[in-house]
Every structure is written in structure tokens, then in C-alpha cells.
Design brief:
By secondary structure, the protein is mainly β. It is 0% helix and 28% strand. The chain binds zinc ion.
Length: 103
């Protein structure tokens, strides 16, 4: 089945700008926390998509990714009904988010 039923998608201002956070639970699983509820409610991943990638940018770091990664996630909060999208890739440089305008 096509991600988001084949419709365009882009994260909203509710999840961008550092508003979406997350953490691991008792194990190594990572959870996205609903920014609208802002009380630790875990968002459910409804679907994901492996997106087309661009060539990795050499960063001159000690270790580098072996392959490109770009995943899109469709997130949903069952409490407040927030429905949104985020992406994760390995082509952004590491460092503190506030120190880099790209991040
Ligand atoms: Zn919520």
C-alpha cells in the first residue's frame, strides 16, 4: 500500500522547530512523544516509507554511514488525534540542533 495513500505529506509546525521529542522506554525502543498533549503521551507510528535518498555528504568524521537512509513516519496520537509526519535520515551532520541552522 502506498504511504499516506499516495498523497503528498509534510510535517506541520506542530512537530517541526524542535517541538517533537522522544525517548526510550524500559528497553531500547524509541518513542515519539505527542507535542500537543505535552505530557508524555506516546504517538503511534501508523506507517513508514523508505524514501529516495541523495548521495551522502562527506563530513570528515571518524566514522561514516555505510549507506543512505531516509525514512518518513506517519505519526498519530490516539488521545488528541494529532496526525503528522516526520523524517529521519543520516545525511545531516551531527552536533547540537541549536548550533546548526540546517537542523
Ligand atoms: Zn496528543
Amino acid at each position: 500500500m502506498a504511504f499516506n495513500n499516495g498523497k503528498p505529506y509534510h510535517g506541520t509546525t506542530e512537530v517541526s522547530g524542535g517541538k517533537l521529542t522522544g525517548k526510550t522506554g524500559k528497553t531500547d525502543y524509541f518513542f515519539f512523544l505527542c507535542p500537543r498533549c505535552n505530557n508524555g503521551n506516546v504517538m503511534r507510528v501508523l506507517e513508514y516509507e523508505r524514501r529516495e535518498t541523495i548521495p551522502l555528504t562527506p563530513r570528515g568524521e571518524k566514522k561514516n554511514p555505510k549507506e543512505n537512509l531516509n525514512l518518513a513516519f506517519h505519526l498519530h496520537c490516539t488521545v488528541c488525534d494529532l496526525d503528522d509526519f516526520i523524517k529521519i535520515d543520516n545525511n545531516h551532520q551531527s552536533g547540537k540542533v541549536a548550533d546548526n541552522s540546517i537542523l
